[in-house]
Amino acid sequence: MPHFSIEYSANLEDMVDIAALCDHLRRAAIETGVFLVPGIRVRAFRAAHVSIADGDDKHAFLDLSVRLRGGRDLDTRKRATDHIFKALQAFMAPALARHSIALSMEMRDIDPDLSPKTGTIRDHLKET
């Protein structure tokens, strides 16, 4: 795994291609060399009702949450966080230059003893 969850204000859809962002972050996760391809999942959730800063509806936000199975050392997680956040900033740069947007990210571990997994994605991957 990791599981990438993007939560964003609805007005961001007028500024950013969210589907393209999901794919961009999936590729960035692969580039880290830290995560196995079959475990990467990126999804986005639109927040229809928000109130940001001074309440002006021109403001937008995007929060990226990355959950991963515990066991990776801190330096590895820091390198992955840095690479992924830089990829997020690069993708968002045109929108950030023109609009009021708060951008954040958090990476955290999931306790493997409390997070059972199963699936067949590996069985269906294309050969690369």
List the helices and strands and how they pair.
Blueprint: E1 3-9, H1 18-32, E2 41-47, E3 60-69, H2 74-98, E4 101-110
Parallel strand pairs: 1-2, 3-4
Antiparallel strand pairs: 1-3
Helix pairs in contact: 1-2
Q: Could you explain how this protein is built, in words?
A:
With 128 residues, the protein is of the alpha/beta class. The protein has one domain: Macrophage Migration Inhibitory Factor (2-Layer Sandwich), CATH 3.30.429.10. The protein contains two helices and four strands; from the N terminus they run βαββαβ. It has helices spanning 18-32, 74-98, and strands at residues 3-9, 41-47, 60-69, 101-110. Strands 2-1-3-4 form a four-stranded mixed β-sheet, with helices on one face. Helix 2 (74-98) links the parallel strand 3 (60-69) and strand 4 (101-110). Helix 1 packs antiparallel against helix 2 (74-98). The radius of gyration is 16 Å and the shape is elongated. The two termini are 19 Å apart. The mean pLDDT is 94.
How do the helices and strands follow one another from N- to C-terminus? EHEEHE
CATH topology: Macrophage Migration Inhibitory Factor
Structural class: alpha/beta
Our count of domains comes out at: 1
Keywords, please?
single chain, 128 residues, alpha/beta, Macrophage Migration Inhibitory Factor, four-stranded mixed sheet, 2 helices, 4 strands, elongated
Summarize this, please?
The protein is α/β, with parallel strands linked by helices. Helices cover 31% and strands 27% of the residues.
